[in-house]
Amino acid sequence: MANANVSFPGADNLTTTTEADKRVLFEEIFTGEVFTAFREQNQMRMYHRIRSISHGKSADFAAIGKAVGRRHTPGAEITGQEIAHGEQTITIDDLVISDVFMSDLHTKMASYELRAPYANELGDALARIVDKSVLRVGLNAARSANPITSLPGGSTITLDAGYAAADDATKAVQLADAIFAAHQIFLEKRSASAGELNCFLTPADYMRLVRNKDLLNQDWGGLGSYSRAELPMVAGINLVVTNHLPQQNDASTTVGDNFTDDIDSLNAKYAGDYSKVQALIMSPDAAGTVELIDFSVESDRDVRRQGDLIVAKQAVGHGVLRSECAVEIVIP
Fold this sequence. Notes:
globular; 6-stranded mixed beta sheet; alpha/beta; phage-related protein like fold; 6 helices; 4-stranded mixed beta sheet
């Protein structure tokens, strides 16, 4: 009796020489799902500057001061003026990975689909680390001086002394007032226009603002919906809800492997005391990312262990670009 001609749906163009050949399309599908999950969860990507490099360990960003105008005296020689220059250097961090080993036996025994959930988890894991790092850079920008000494640095707005013990309605009013004050700071510094500004805050603080009907009052030009819990902006600044705004002291955090909390995977340069942080307002020019190895996925068939090892990876670095483009709001 002749052997059956097996059709391998994972094979590319009938190439079935090796076991890996029989799985290649499955791996491409999985890789695509991981990449999609990363892009969907990588919230901060659109809120800061990104530069890709093909080699090297860092990238330099130029900082240029302002020119001044003056009145000219008839007959006086015009000799030009000096404009201050500086630079911000962003270095590449260690390779960041998220990995999973899928056992053939347990994959077969599972009564539910594993590929899509695993793909989502790997993509989400790296997205969390990137978002946590960029938000910390934004806060560090608010606390930093400008490399051009003639230009302003970042700013901090401190809420009222009784904020922590206040009720939600009072907190909403104080937080809204602080966002208005931040917008004023940007106007005075002329460091960013309102359309570029984004306020990152926790879900709890966002809901407090939504319940403040003055911010929703359309007679005053308010936007959003109380019934849908929507409030797109306050004081002309876009509101962005995030679960990754740091509100703890991780100044002494050590880099290591902790699968329950990505905080231990942060590079030491992002560590700091963020225990009083309530919100961060910044424009995209406040923080930058340099990409050496963009997000990618590798898989390896391990016959000796009867399973597949899948690794999502990325090599990037983050740093402050323009400190005058960031304001943090803190409790006393």
